[in-house]
Design brief:
Pathway: Porphyrin-containing compound metabolism; protoporphyrin-IX biosynthesis; coproporphyrinogen-III from 5-aminolevulinate: step 3/4. By secondary structure, the chain is of the alpha/beta class. It contains ten helices and ten strands. The protein folds into two domains: about 120 residues, Rossmann fold (3-Layer(aba) Sandwich); about 120 residues, Rossmann fold (3-Layer(aba) Sandwich), CATH 3.40.50.10090.
């Protein structure tokens, strides 16, 4: 019987920080590579269901057939956006083109019955790549809607406005620091061999939780970030060993993690 090839993760302790409902696949992948995995969720996704925010969502959803471009920035945006669409559009209108940030987001759109604009469903597309698509080069007079959480980057929206598009944000959820995160980090007695974060918001929450819990020592292990932009931000926050993955996909994050552990 052939002995399995050892990977750089065998026997390594990795601290992961994804939201509870999104960490399973990443955790299982790392364990399949021989890692010991600890999870402290540092991002909580809370859908907007009531109040003025929910009314604004409803108004935009009711006008969905009037949009030319519908951009989804995350899997959460797909989940909550299409939940709203299903309530008011049993059959999706034919007008809007659908776009995704990230390969997983594109696949999520496809599972909800729409076809995302992409050259390759398995290729992760960041904001800059999306803005380079020919369909978005000349949107003057066209309507675009960006499905996202409250706040976040404005690069896509600002660029589309500069190109003449009429833009609306459909803000579907809030991103919060889980109330238990600081205590979990305070009680965490290990020093991991590496830490992974999958977004800039998670990174900011990590720093906040480290400071509040007295675990500033966790600024020193290798930190794997989903882009050079987030990695640069991590360096300004005081993390000492920062590595940038090509994107937030599992394969890219794993490649960067393995490189960090071998360096």
């Amino acid at each position: 019987m052939t002995k399995p090839t050892a990977t750089p993760l065998v026997g390594q302790r990795i601290l992961i920080t994804r939201p509870v409902h999104q960490c399973g696949g990443w955790r299982d992948l790392l364990r399949s590579q021989g890692a010991d995995v600890d999870a402290v969720p540092l991002l909580e996704i809370v859908p907007i269901k009531e109040g003025d925010g929910a009314q604004q969502i409803k108004n935009l959803i009711m006008d969905f057939d009037q949009f030319d471009h519908a951009i989804f920035v995350s899997q959460n945006a797909v989940q909550y956006g299409f939940d709203w669409l299903d309530d008011y559009w049993p059959q999706l209108p034919q007008g809007p083109r659908h776009y995704a940030i990230g390969a997983a987001t594109a696949r999520a759109i496809r599972t909800r019955g729409a076809e995302p604009v992409t050259d390759n469903i398995d290729t992760a597309m960041d904001s800059e790549a999306l803005l380079a698509l020919p369909q978005l080069q000349h949107p003057a007079g066209q309507r675009a809607i960006i499905f996202r959480g409250q706040g976040g980057r404005t690069l896509i929206g600002d660029t589309l406005i500069e190109r003449g598009a009429r833009l609306d944000y459909c803000e579907l959820y809030r991103r919060l620091l889980p109330t238990s995160a600081q205590q979990q980090l305070h009680d965490y007695r290990c020093t991991p061999d590496a830490i992974t974060v999958h977004s800039g918001e998670t990174l900011d929450n990590l720093l906040q939780a480290l400071q509040a819990s007295g675990r500033q020592d966790l600024l020193n292990p290798p930190l794997i970030c989903p882009s050079e932009r987030v990695a640069g931000h991590a360096r300004t926050l005081g993390f000492t060993r920062v590595y940038a993955a090509a994107n937030a996909s599992d394969s890219a994050m794993l490649e960067s993690l393995e490189a960090a552990l071998q360096s």
